[in-house]
Amino acid sequence: MIRNVVFDIGGVLLRLRYQPFIEYLAGAGIDMTNLPKWLEQVDLAAHERGEIGGEELLGRIAAMARRPLDPAELRGRWLDMFDRAHEMFDLAEGLKDQYRVFLLSNIGDLHWAHLNARYGFEGLTHGVVASFRVGAIKPSAAIYRATERMFGLEPAATVFIDDLPPNVAGAQACGWQAIHHRDPVETRRQLRTLGVRLPAPFALE
């Protein structure tokens, strides 16, 4: 029986709009043709583990540009790449009455401070695991185990919702139930299949 529902943030509760940021950097002469390689160069993973602060990360990015970048504009564009996914927000809020609801996200310090201030994540659910605070990122087993310890989660009674297949597989490898989120309707269908009772606005679908 499911007792805990854990949501990812980016790609689930928030829609990602990173293309304008990529175009902005490309316009400054930064080679973005191989995005995975570029992410390795700036070491985004280390940033999300909390080993590199957000300001240092932005400094690394600025150093790659062929023309000077305004630090305030770069910071603003870095922060402004998310939109609220209303149906998923409503689902998370509605499930709190019957389930323990948590957030688990690969996220750095600047994004977390900005998004928490804007969307009130710490009050939305019963608890949050932000990767930069625990020193581990999905899909490493370490972050799922840290979440279990922090909130006393039983893996088999926990379902995780994430938009990236490797993160879903990471949760499943730790014994969690997991859903690959692609659209709200399908995610709700899969929750029902697991026996999760949906809040009233979605109960009659």
Describe this structure in words.
With 205 residues, the chain is α/β, with parallel strands linked by helices. It has 2 domains: 4-15 and 83-203, Rossmann fold (3-Layer(aba) Sandwich), CATH 3.40.50.1000; 18-79. The chain has 13 helices and 7 strands. It has helices at 19-27, 35-42, 44-48, 54-64, 71-79, 86-95, 109-119, 121-124, 131-134, 141-151, 165-173, 184-193, 200-203; strands spanning 4-7, 14-16, 82-84, 100-105, 127-130, 158-162, 177-180. α4 (54-64) crosses α5. The mean pLDDT is 96.
What would the keywords be for this entry?
alpha/beta, Rossmann fold
Low-pLDDT segments, ≥5 res:
none
Number of strands: 7
Structural class: alpha/beta
Adjacency order of strands in the biggest sheet: 5-4-1-6-7
Oligomeric status of the shown chains?
single chain
Number of helices: 13
CATH class descriptor of the largest domain: Alpha Beta
Query: Do you know the CATH topology of the largest domain?
Result: Rossmann fold
Tell me what the CATH architecture of the largest domain is.
3-Layer(aba) Sandwich
What percentage of amino acids are in beta strands?
5-15%
Q: For the CA atoms, what is the radius of gyration? A: 18 Å
Q: Looking at the structure, what is the overall shape?
A: elongated
Q: What is the assigned CATH homologous superfamily of the largest domain?
A: HAD superfamily/HAD-like
Main sheet attributes: strand count, strand direction, barrel closure: 5 strands, parallel
Distance between the termini: 22 Å
User: Secondary-structure element order, as H and E?
Assistant: EEHHHHHEHEHHEHHEHEHH
Mean pLDDT, as a whole number?
96
Helix content: 40-55%
Can you tell me the number of structural domains?
A: 2
